[in-house]
Amino acid sequence: MKSLTEYLTFHLLARMGFENITPQIAEIVARSGVQEGLVLVNAMHITASVFINDDEPGLHADYKKWLEGLAPFDASPSRYAHNRTGEDNADAHMKRQIMGREVVVAITKGKLDFGPWEQIFYGEFDGKRAKRVLVKVIGE
Amino acid sequence: MKSLTEYLTFHLLARMGFENITPQIAEIVARSGVQEGLVLVNAMHITASVFINDDEPGLHADYKKWLEGLAPFDASPSRYAHNRTGEDNADAHMKRQIMGREVVVAITKGKLDFGPWEQIFYGEFDGKRAKRVLVKVIGE
Amino acid sequence: MKSLTEYLTFHLLARMGFENITPQIAEIVARSGVQEGLVLVNAMHITASVFINDDEPGLHADYKKWLEGLAPFDASPSRYAHNRTGEDNADAHMKRQIMGREVVVAITKGKLDFGPWEQIFYGEFDGKRAKRVLVKVIGE
């Protein structure tokens, strides 16, 4: 069994944002030499996501509005008990649960085995600082 | 390490629907010859899900109503920016995030290692056309 | 390829609750002898979750309130068709979908490869009875 572990760092300037990281993941998979296997891609921070969806700016705007409706940002400790700790990011912990922590993608014949529109995104819900994403390839 | 990759195609007649695909996944796992390992099952389209829950028609009706409440269908471009592209399925991209893209299931002694009620479903949120599901088995 | 399969049992006294299970998972990973690989941790019951987030009591209180808002408990069969079966836990099947069934975690140099705040939780949404969690380690 082969394996390869890499860490990517992202620093988004907005509080909430999505970045297409498919090229970086494809490059790591190619470099691993794995022909048949799996790649795990996960946020290492708990106010961020890795998810697969469409690279369409309108949809990303819709996601932001929708997530804000489901879990509104509110820095005050009266709405969110978590914000009594001095944090202001309780909403980000919720948005991340809806969008998910990780994806597992099949590697077939040495490549990401994707449908026509699948793209991997880093999702940030408490940005303006550097955070890491783990990429783990296993297979043969 | 052994591996097996298969693609299943589903064509649901309704816009939203759930289909129990456990028998097909169990058959692929058996055919792989893997005794100890993992199977990844994921939607290859970004308005569909693969998830694990109960095969109970009342619950499925509840899921549809609940998802419609959280992310209502609205073809107009005024509610969802994504629908300015000519698409009408922005809601489906949201429903899919709640229900998830994929499941990873343990294979133990050659079989899906499931609790008493676990069943694998294909979840469709923008149906009336054919879509694919990827099944990747790895292990020994 | 090495593998190890373990089953953990949890019996939470409240209907909804979160338990940090990171020490148990770390011990199983150490015992497996796997240096590079993956560990799958999943709820075997469909009204429970395994998820990764922060071990902060205020956040957990926020999660409970938020999930109750998105999918309120209501034992009556008028709100949820599932409860016509004699069950009262339709809401728990929804809460579990938001929080997720499973996590897949990288094992690097024999340890859970985690960011600074990542902790694994068992999430219970229909408690007061024993339920199982599956832990499957694969790698080398």
Low-confidence spans of chain A: none
Largest sheet of chain A: 5 strands, antiparallel
Specify the oligomeric state: homotrimer
Strand order of the largest sheet of chain A: 1-8-3-5-6
Number of helical regions of chain A: 3
Strand content of chain A: 35-45%
SSE sequence of chain A, one letter per element: EEHEEHHEEEE
Using the CA coordinates, give the radius of gyration of chain A.
16 Å
How many strand units of chain A? 8
Distance between the termini of chain A: 5 Å
Which percent bin holds the helix content of chain A? 25-40%
What structural class do you assign from the helix and strand content of chain A?
A: alpha+beta
User: How much is the average pLDDT of chain A?
Assistant: 98
Largest interface: which pair? A-B, 34 and 33 residues
The coarse overall form of chain A would be elongated
